[in-house]
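Protocol step 4 of 6: structure prediction from sequence.
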Amino acid sequence: MIENWGITIMKLDRQDHYGKKDSNKKGNYRAVAQEALTERYGSDPDIDRSKSGDNIFIASKDIKNYLEEQGKEFSGEALCDYYDSLVADHKDPRGHKFRSDGIIAVAVVFKPSVDDREWSSMSDDNQNALMEHVAMALKECFGEYKDNIVIDCVAIHRDEGNSHPHVFAHDRNFALGDKLGLPFMEELHRGAFITYMKEKGYDLKPHESGITDDEQKQIKELKQQIKEDPENENLQTDLTNLRRSIKKRKGGLTSAKYKADKQAKKIIEQAQMQADKIREEAMKDVEQLKQVAEQERIEILRQAQAIKEQLISEGKQEKAAAYKKSDQIIADAQDEKNRLISEGRQEKEKLISEGKQVRNAFKTKPSDKFRKIINLLGAIKDNHPTDKQLSDLSRDLENQNFIGQPINQHEPYAEYYEQMRMELSTTHLY
């Protein structure tokens, strides 16, 4: 289904107002024809002049006969000359000649959107066939007047951004002005046009906007009231307001709106592409930052592991050193213990030896005893320099030389001697 499409209707007259804004969608017949047909006049920037040779022009039998009679080539100018020949002798039912501002023909432009998937997927031949059927579908929209409508020519443009047909038609009675109202637009956007194209194998999505049955009824009633009371301005105002409200939601696109929408879509697409590119670059930056962060995280973990292993290694070394130091302390303590034990044993043996000497001294004759006592006291003095009495005893015994005399006859040493003898006896030397 072709969902995105638009259609433009322009009434053609012989007034010089083409290019000016006209709310009634009117245009000069020669200007419009020469822009759309072989001349391709105009300054439309969307036209690719190098492709204008690809455009297709289909003329009716009547046009071909006229061109042959006049010896002319098909063109926009020739089409307008043909229209002039038709209205030259034309008179309305009241016998009036054709007015210069009368509607001489109509130009219709069918515009499938370049963004429509169905349309863009069709081959050129299929597109051309569809566009040729537009002309007859357009005729069906005139309903009971369709037999008076003559399709004069179709121009298929392929030199613009999107291919589309221009259809030129006229009314045999030159009364198009009354036949292009809201009922015609309803058939164009939601009725006969859609039905005819579907019968030919082309499914078009109807435009949602359009005139309702109730609105058609209101329009007919207002027209009848105006006919009966033409001086009533309120009725004319009501009809105008009703038509405006319907027009606001009416389907179809004007040429200017079509191009504006197309340009807007292009700007939106470019903005979207730029936004997508920015997002893509941002995602790349994010991924790169993530990779850098991950590498730094791995490096930090590696360094932390290395520090941990180093601390463990240093701890093991310190522990081993502590064990070694502890073993040394224990060994030194053991050596000191052994030394003290050895010294103690030596001191013990010395004391035992000294005690035995004292004991043996008392077993010899007195003279020998005193001399040995003197020697013994000297030895004791060397080992106990703080004992004043022993020191004095040793000195007095040497000075007074009472060797060979009984020890108890010499005071004050007799008492001390007995004390010493008693103390020595406690060493179990006797």
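Step 5 (inspection) to follow. The two ends are 143 Å apart (CA to CA).
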